[in-house]
Amino acid sequence: xxxxxxxxxxxxxxxxxxxxxxxxxxxxxxxxxxxxxxxxxxxxxxxxxxxxxxxxxxxxxxxxxxxxxxxxxxxxxxxxxxxxxxxxxxxxxxxxxxxxxxxxxxxxxxxxxxxxxxxxxxxxxxxxxxxxxxxxxxxxxxxxxxxxxxxxxxxxxxxxxxxxxxxxxxxxxxxxxxxxxxxxxxxxxxxxxxxxxxxxxxxxxxxxxxxxxxxxxxxxxxxxxxxxxxxxxxxxxxxxxxxxxxxxxxxxxxxxxxxxxxxxxxxxxxxxxxxxxxxxxxxxxxxxxxxxxxxxxxxxxxxxxxxxxxxxxxxxxxxxxxxxxxxxxxxxx
Amino acid sequence: xxxxxxxxxxxxxxxxxxxxxxxxxxxxxxxxxxxxxxxxxxxxxxxxxxxxxxxxxxxxxxxxxxxxxxxxxxxxxxxxxxxxxxxxxxxxxxxxxxxxxxxxxxxxxxxxxxxxxxxxxxxxxxxxxxxxxxxxxxxxxxxxxxxxxxxxxxxxxxxxxxxxxxxxxxxxxxxxxxxxxxxxxxxxxxxxxxxxxxxxxxxxxxxxxxxxxxxxxxxxxxxxxxxxxxxxxxxxxxxxxxxxxxxxxxxxxxxxxxxxxxxxxxxxxxxxxxxxxxxxxxxxxxxxxxxxxxxxxxxxxxxxxxxxxxxxxxxxxxxxxxxxxxxxxxxxxxxxxxxxxxxxxxxxxxxxxxxxxxxxxxxxxxxxxxxxxxxxxxxxxxxxxxxxxxxxxxxxxxxxxxxxxxxxxxxxxxxxxxxxxxxxxxxxxxxxxxxxxxxxxxxxxxxxxxxxxxxxxxxxxxxxxxxxxxxxxxxxxxxxxxxxxxxxxxxxxxxxxxxxxxxxxxxxxxxxxxxxxxxxxxxxxxxxxxxxxxxxxxxxxxxxxxxxxxxxxxxxxxxxxxxxxxxxxxxxxxxxxxxxxxxxxxxxxxxxxx
Lengths: 333, 594
Prior knowledge:
Radius of gyration of chain B: 25 Å
Shape of chain A: elongated
Strand content of chain B: under 5%
Distance between the termini of chain A: 89 Å
Largest sheet of chain B: 2 strands, antiparallel
Oligomer: heterodimer
Number of domains of chain A: 2
Strand content of chain A: 15-25%
């Protein structure tokens, strides 16, 4: 960079730094405040770099930006870790039995985080240590079987350390306990309906072909198992705390995905088939259900609610619900 | 024989190369301006045509991303789009970036330019088919662009185009939009197949004498393997697209079960939506590597050249490319852990997916080990290569989350996935593309790109895009699903997330602006750039040893080059220069050293 352009560039940076400071002081808080501060910080940093470069040039060192590169690598490594630690954006407290999933994610964060910092740190070291200088020549070493072997083994071990718990808990995730209560969730553009098995503990058969205004979930009217099924159209789904739930998922039109972030579990609902997932709600409260598979224009507004209650409250709610037989009778002329 | 010294005999023996197996060919020659610059059969011109078309459509994708960021960052004040447009724009942005920009630029652009030059051929083996490939690609792009202007607009089904939603009325563009999308993909695949066959056959058949496979630059290994993957993977997308067209236009039920759409019973019955997902991802996962492998190859060459050091562990690098390419065909269902397929598949696909991390990690180690004891020049291509390593490592690490079936359950379909794939197959390969353009522009045009503008471009793009996508992971950790027009009132999300989205949007506008500086640099340097000379980076590979810069028609003048060594003889002890071109005879190396 020539002397003149160094002055012009530096002057521009000084102005942008001042502008940032002004912006921050004026806006008080929020996005503009932080934008201003970042602008100020970046400008100061670049000005110091510019000065460093000028000294390099005066003392005859090659005018290369190794310092900036090295610092940037360190800053990205440290900044990523700091962001991770300080981030106010983190998963909601868990409300199901899947805390093992959280543990596996944490473990993966540790292993990958350490590897990330080591690799970037090594790069930064190389940048400072092996930057081009007059007369310097690189070492000629095409390969090292030993080093590559060691790295392969270490990587394979780290991967296995993440994979093993992953597979172990996946096995639990897909292995539904015998005593789980069946609950059906039906998705359609853009709302959820639910069906509980009623007194006999069994859900009756249903078919998309039978769906009509009188029979919104397509139940088979001739199936005795279905007569006492409880149908919840529009309202929230209630579940009993500490009772394993097997959710049978069905869609009448397009793909949907029933997702309650606090439960961690999630599964697509596919028209033409019944999918499933299971979990045990572990604390009471009201949780928001989201659709997690693009399902058309109003995908983002397809929300539902799950209320987890103690046994007594749950029974009281259940007693208020209407069965399929009563609904059919009410609608008969 | 008495006057022949022993040294001279050694020279002859050392300089010996295998005889030519394929005779030199007569190329089609252009006789008019039209056949020279428009309907041209020279791979170098076709490469520039491919690149310019890809960058033009890429600009459309950039503008779409701005419109989406306006909505996501400022849903109440600055948004100019509604939900329908939002879904149309995410769909088109994704499809353009993955297929029409990245695939076309790496294979059609860099593949066409670099394969003949780097393997020492005069041109592609089938020049006419090569030309046709570009024009068919252009047709595919035009059909794609046309879909913005048909009734109902472009499809808003998401770039994965999952049925039934893609062809039902609750999705924007479910009429003409999706039809044009599918037709455009079919046309693209036809065009790519013409090009892809060319790339593969040229690498296998038209290499210069002495250019064994294990002497080829990694750029060529990457492009070659990616072309093979594409030839095997694109047909799955092709049949998927044809079948969906049949479902839509002829009423068949490949992917359509019994459905009640907005209260109406449809006549479809018995089809499987998941079948489409298998076809799509059987293409879609290799597609990730179709984009990544050329980037791996190119970045290896950038690092070796600008660190003046041989790429560390060349043989391992080659085998890693081949193994990753092979494995990429048996990992596809890791996109489908929560799709409703048989969950037992999860065990198999989690294992294969995490295994693929090992050769990939080895590539990363070998890149950074190439820096070790190197002589690192911080040129603009080197900066982009370093930026690539950072973003690729970051994105690769989050792949270890999503590949591990049970960890994927809470993260799947959230912003974590969006952040992951943007980091690993958006930002990382694009940084390589920029690095590669700064690296090869001098050969293509004969002039250097402006260095100061290049550095500005690098810093804003690298730091900016990292700052955009790092925080988005944390939205996903909270549970924000992807493809949401707005977060709205979500109980797990604190209000501060709105501020986060604002900041991300502001950075996105700045990064987008920096790309305009890059485009300006491309145009400005064409006339005003410093003259480059034939080998400004002092590189070893053949494309820098051409008799003319830019290389003339036929690349090599009268004599085809003869190759004596691998592509990475940098800083060889005892040699006079710190690089030995691949075609420099050993006798001249010895003479220079003495």
